[in-house]
Amino acid sequence: MLISNINQLRSIIKSSSDRTFLVDVRTGKSFSYGAINAVTADLTRELTAKGVVKGDRVGMILHNSIEFVCCYLACLCTGAVAVPINVALDIEQIAFILTTARLKLLVYEPATEPLMSGVLPAEPAVKTLHIGTTGTSGEKPGNCWRVPEEPAFLEDLPIIDSVRFDDPFSLTFTSGTTGTPKGVSHRIRTLLQCAYAFNEAVGFGPHHRFYHILPMGYMAGLLNNLLCPMLAGASVVIDRLFDARMALRFWQTPLKFGVNTMWLVPSILATLLKTDRGHDGEEYCGTKMDFICVGTAPLPTRLKKDFEQRYSTFLLESYGLSETLFVTTNSRRYIQCDGFTGPALKGVDIRIVNEQGGNMPPGVEGDVGIQSRYMFAGYLNDTTGRVDPFPENGWYESGDIGFINEQSHLRITDRKKDLIIRGGLNISPRKIEEVLSSHPAVEESAVIGVPHEQFGEEVVAVIKLRQKSDREIVESELLSECRSRLSHALVPGGFVFLNELPRSSTGKVSKKDLRVMIIKNREKNG
Fold first, then answer.
1. What gap in Å lies between CA 194 and CA 199, rounded to an integer?
2. What residues contact residue 345 under an 8 Å CB cut-off, 6+ apart?
């Protein structure tokens, strides 16, 4: 049974009123569901005083915080559309979002004020709301809001009567790693029902306590780490975004606050394996962490096995997109297939098709198409400021390549845009990356195609080595390994070694930036 209306949401939250919902790592303060309801009611009144009404768009340029969560909930209560803006985006991307989103109000904090200064559109004028007690640009009285010191207890989330289950709730922007950021619109219904379905598949409940270190400004920060726990009656420990400094003492916070559930991305897993010198994480995961959820990017097989072996826990990989939300997930309730992201959630259909649109049988690779009851409403039209609707019951072409096995589990083998076309042959980078990453000296790899006069594109492997690895020896061994395990056309024509691979604001390797970097370097060196 899926959640089907606003009153069900109210009932779910009301039943958890006395339980802890949010824990702030900065202050150590805990907030029950009832307290957060009261804080949300206070912020809802503030938005209303600013003239925000149902359908208006409210931008939020904030770091991970209790305030960010309450902004999302206040938008839900007023019927406004939440427009989160990731603080890791560059100023041009932020300016683009602020210009195209047609905001009624922008919420910010002192630390993010420099990101919005000078880029707010002059017409129509956008109102602002400062989170905190005082601002750095001399806000007028009444233009600041902060979480009340002792919020009153409120059982019901104060959603206004005119809010409907099918109303728009969020407008999130993709990271723009392959071009201009795209605004993706989702309804209240699709977000809540998908969160409910995922909870059911994985088994999230009130006893789970999440550790939130992913950006709240992206879908994983909203859906995975806020809506899923909220509908499960679980709690969330809110910390800053994961960084290298955090990696050195990563397990101290989960230990201190009793975390037993977390979402990590492959780059964080790799960083922890490299920098974690203690044994607290190994002991803690082995006794307290039944599993760790992994998403947002493909999980290399070697990385999965190395992490699971060291920390004695299971990594549950899932697959989803901003447009489709969760599509598949693994679970402890059935045997996982290595390299697969599990079966489709309830309400989701997957098809694998060839270039002519014909359906592929199990085990045969093709383009991944998705039909889902959790599908996005449409993309924001940059020119009109309206959302161009996605066809109801339409199939979404994911841009990914993969296949389904006999158990109906999905395996993503590559991203269509990442395919390398060498001499007319389509080459899968991920297949080559799996071979490269299996070498013990390779910490991370990325395979790209660069222009080649004879073949159109040449296969180039970009490698980040582990410490104390001999580059010449590793390159020779990698070349030998590729020749023995891959067909001739897939063997890299060149190797590039970097200390760090460029990443997008969501932590994914930016192959676009890699291509530009390597092409420019080749042109420079003739």
1. 9
2. 194, 197, 198, 201, 326, 327, 328, 329, 374
Please report, for residues 105, 122, 138, 189, 193, the alpha-carbon distance to residue 40 in angstroms, rounded to integers and kept in the order given.
17, 30, 25, 20, 22
* Rounded alpha-carbon distances, angstroms, from residue 226 to 169, 218, 268, 269: 14, 11, 20, 21
Closest CA to 342 of 404, 431, 279, 418: 404
Question: Looking at the predicted structure, is the pLDDT value of residue 361 above 70?
Answer: yes
- What letter does residue 94 receive in the DSSP assignment? H
Which residue has better confidence, 298 or 321?
321
116 phi, psi to nearest 5 deg: -105, -15
**In CATH, what is the architecture of 6-21+30-163?**
3-Layer(aba) Sandwich (3.40)
Q: Which CATH class is domain 419-525?
A: alpha beta
Half-sphere exposure in the Cβ direction for 461 (13 Å, CA): 27
The pTM (predicted TM-score) of the whole model is 0.85
Domain borders along the chain are: 6-21+30-163, 419-525
Q: Are the C-beta atoms of residues 521 and 488 closer than 8 Å to each other?
A: no
The three-class DSSP label of residue 269 is helix
One-letter amino acid for residue 484 of the chain: S
Q: Within 13 Å, how many C-alpha atoms sit on residue 339's CB side?
A: 13
Q: Which residues pair with 462 in a beta bridge?
A: 446, 496
Structure tokens at 227: 């809506």
Q: Output phi, psi for 397, to 5 deg.
A: -85, 110
Strand partners, 265: none
Kindly report, residue by residue over 443-477, the tens digit of the pLDDT.
Answer: 999 999 888 877 778 899 999 998 888 899 999 99
